[in-house]
Amino acid sequence: MTDLMTPDQLEAALRAIGRERYHDRHPFHALLHGGKLDRGQVQAWALNRYYYQSRIPLKDSALMSRAEDPALRREWRQRVVDHDGEREGEGGIARWLHLTDALGLDRAAVIDGRGILPATRFAVDAYVRFVRERTLLEAVASSLTELFAPAIIGNRVAGMLANYDFVSRDALAYFDKRLTQAPRDSDFALDYVKREARRPDQQQDVMNALLFKCDVLWAQLDALHHAYVEPGNIPPGAFVPEGRR
Amino acid sequence: MTDLMTPDQLEAALRAIGRERYHDRHPFHALLHGGKLDRGQVQAWALNRYYYQSRIPLKDSALMSRAEDPALRREWRQRVVDHDGEREGEGGIARWLHLTDALGLDRAAVIDGRGILPATRFAVDAYVRFVRERTLLEAVASSLTELFAPAIIGNRVAGMLANYDFVSRDALAYFDKRLTQAPRDSDFALDYVKREARRPDQQQDVMNALLFKCDVLWAQLDALHHAYVEPGNIPPGAFVPEGRR
């Protein structure tokens, strides 16, 4: 059994997990941001990542459905608003579709998830299920990857604009919003787990939840890298960029 | 809406899916059977595949828990017996541990799933959940990959014995059993879906269930291939063979 950490020690342990395991360290990101991908590969990334985006409000709603404290539900509700918007055409999901439109993907196919990698679906569904089934503390903790998001988003936007003539600032509007939303959300979640994880086993649960979420993100990039960076590996039924295979 | 097929047309459609999507077509299998992997890579395969094996009786029990017909439950129970054995040390799972032992893996680590790829867990858990949540017809249909297993097993045993001095006939005892078990099981499941899928939408469900299961198997090999065949891709926290990284 590990000892009880102070809240600040727990925060330090969580930040150490992010430094080692967050998907900004994945080689696919270096390729994406460094302009080393072609349009078809960026399409594959945006198509698969849409499935992740589309499931985020489901997992946030699942968390709300388990939170008995109205204050927690209200705080968390903002995440759903951020993704779904106040009306048709607004919110993060609509902004992601704006990106897939700009990349020339068929919107109906994106929304249906036609051609996404099975590994994307398996990883994302595992995340939604985790939030549905684990403790509320673990569900909150699994959102903590957002602590590490602002840095990657800054790099991404700058790198993609500098390197891809098929990507415009406008197409990347999703990320502008996330630069303010992610820190607000992760500050709240970090305070929550520092306050609520009062026993060593709960602190361990919190760390394991963050490790799990890092795996969810990493596995998605592994699958993209395998299928679309190395030649000849696109699995049967998955999206094939023009001119590939 | 597609037209109703005859039972034999449905069987032909299912066999066509297997020809196109079963994981015997995956490049990792060619490497495995062709002697192109080193001991560490075969260890990684056996370690990850253990997780799949270990979950098969859970999914078969889940199916039984939903089958109201005692005859179906009795038939299906044999699968659980095959995997779990009649007593400690018997059955398919014990035989798989015999293989991981022979490959020099730590048995406690294998049983705990220490170091398995997150993608393995996501794919296998998706399969168990599918059987728990979908219709009984789809649950039965998702087992139909066993129609295509005998050919791959024959190739595997011959190829591994011929090519790897660290693999013995005895270590591969698991597969000898499967050569008789898989055809018996798949004959039953095939008869079941041919009989029970009486509407076009049910026939479509059956085909989709088989496609899903092919994805589950394929995604596991994709993850192994990415992590252990191409250099530098082992995800954080995953098994690292001696001398790698």
From TrEMBL, chains A, B:
Record-linked SUPFAM superfamilies: Heme oxygenase-like
Keyword Oxidoreductase recorded: yes
EC number of this enzyme: 1.3.3.11
Domain Thiaminase-2/PQQC: start-end pairs: 12-222
Pathway connected to this protein: Cofactor biosynthesis; pyrroloquinoline quinone biosynthesis
Catalysed reaction, written as an equation: 6-(2-amino-2-carboxyethyl)-7,8-dioxo-1,2,3,4,7,8-hexahydroquinoline-2,4-dicarboxylate + 3 O2 = pyrroloquinoline quinone + 2 H2O2 + 2 H2O + H(+)
Enzyme class: oxidoreductase
Pfam family, one: TENA_THI-4
Record-level GO BP terms: pyrroloquinoline quinone biosynthetic process
GO MF annotations, alphabetized: pyrroloquinoline-quinone synthase activity
InterPro entries: Haem_Oase-like_multi-hlx, PqqC, PqqC-like, Thiaminase-2/PQQC
Signal peptide as annotated in the record: none
Gene3D superfamilies associated with the record: Heme oxygenase-like
Keyword terms: Oxidoreductase, PQQ biosynthesis
UniProt cross-references to NCBIfam families, sorted A to Z: PQQ_syn_pqqC (TIGR02111)
Family: Belongs to the PqqC family.
Biological role stated in the UniProt entry: Ring cyclization and eight-electron oxidation of 3a-(2-amino-2-carboxyethyl)-4,5-dioxo-4,5,6,7,8,9-hexahydroquinoline-7,9-dicarboxylic-acid to PQQ.
This protein's name: Pyrroloquinoline-quinone synthase
Origin species: Inquilinus limosus
Gene transcribed to yield this protein: pqqC
